[in-house]
Each structure stands twice: as C-alpha cells, then as structure tokens.
Design a protein that fits this description.
This protein is mainly α and about 210 residues long. It is built from nine helices and no strands. Helix content is about 80%, strand content about 0%. It is globular, with a radius of gyration of 18 Å.
C-alpha cells in the first residue's frame, strides 16, 4: 500500500489510481491460496520489482499511456501464472482438452508478452533519449533487447531449477516439452516483432505528445 500512496503523490491523476487499483486487486487475488507460495513469489516478483522501478523513476521519466497499460497487462499475466502456475491455468486447461492439445499453453502467452511489452518500453526509452539513429537500427536494438531479456529469464529459470529441485517443474512449466526453452525465446521474438508492427505508429503519436 505504501507503493500506491507514493505513486499517487508523484502523479495524482485518475489513470494512476485506476492502474494501481487494478494492480493491487489482482495481486491480492493472486496471493489468496495460490497453488504454491514459493512459485507464486517467483512468478510475481518481476511485477513487484517493475512497480518499484516505475515509482522510483516516475519523476525523471514518465512513460506514455500505452506503455503503462501494456506494463499492467504484463503484470496481470504474471500474477495469474503465479496463482495457478503456468502449467495449470484453468482456461488453458479447457483449451488443451477441448482442442486435443498436448499441453497447457498459458506459458506461451507469458513469453509472447515477454517480447511484446518490453519492445514498447525499450522503444520508448531509446527514442526519447535519442540513443539510436534511424528506424532500422531502432528495430534492431529493440528486438535485441527483448531477446536478451528472454534469454536472461531462461537463465533465471535454470538457476531456480538447480537450486530448488522439487519446485523446478512448476516454475519452468516445461510439461515434458524438450524444446521449451527455445520455444519460449521464439515466442518472445514473435511478440517483439508484433509489437513493432502493430503499435509503432500509435506509440510515436503518444511520444510526440509528451515531447510537446
């Protein structure tokens, strides 16, 4: 709750209050009787770290509304995965059973988001800091950043698997799929490309409004 008060004081508008209200509502729901509290903490920690980072940097760097909405969506995806574990989200169990699939694919939604949302965040930081010259270089660096984030997350999963032993399967969400790591990174790549293709024009308009 201290986080929410701090953020409202930094930027007191309706969007911030709504953003925080949704964030904490889903967080509280996610924390009520999750499948495993250790897995819940591992999955939800990036959302909590992201919130803290947004609060600490809000005065110096206010993102566009598009970026904030996407960040919130990513946080919700993490919290839902933390509550059920990524391999047992009920809706995706139903999809698996209804369409005769071999696995629950909610984790793939998470990895698409792992590319889609950071692409817009990285794009905004690079543009507004004039860090890249030329659209082609911008696309290259945004996708490279997203792939680096995805690869680092896979390393974290590996380290957790080594250290936690019995809890590794639920956190990894492999579900017996040999190429899960490579698949996760591929979907992050698809997410990053999709974000650039679908949202670049909208994002540019919002960035121009902030600059003006």
């Amino acid at each position: 709750m201290a986080f929410s008060i701090a953020m409202i004081n930094v930027y007191p508008n309706n969007m911030t209050k709504t953003w925080l209200g949704i964030f904490f509502a889903v967080l509280i729901w996610s924390a009520i009787d999750p499948k495993d509290y250790f897995i819940w903490l591992l999955e939800v920690f990036p959302a909590l770290a992201g919130l803290a980072l947004l609060i600490c940097t809000r005065k110096r760097f206010e993102f566009t509304k598009l970026a904030y909405i996407l960040i919130l969506i990513h946080c919700i995806i993490l919290m839902v995965g933390g509550h059920y574990t990524y391999a047992e989200v009920p809706l995706f169990n139903w999809i698996r059973d209804s369409f005769d699939m071999q696995r629950n694919n909610y984790d793939k939604i998470g990895h698409i988001a792992q590319g889609f949302i950071p692409a817009i965040v990285a794009r905004e930081i690079l543009i507004r800091n004039n860090a890249v010259n030329g659209r082609r270089w911008l696309i290259f660096f945004v996708i490279s950043i997203c792939m680096a984030i995805s690869a680092f997350y896979e390393l974290i999963e590996w380290w957790v698997a080594v250290l936690s032993g019995g809890s590794a399967e639920a956190f990894l969400g492999i579900q017996g799929y040999t190429w899960d790591t490579q698949s996760d990174m591929f979907w992050a790549f698809i997410g990053a490309v999709a974000a650039l293709m679908l949202l670049s024009r909208v994002h540019d308009r919002q960035i121009r409004k902030i600059k003006n």
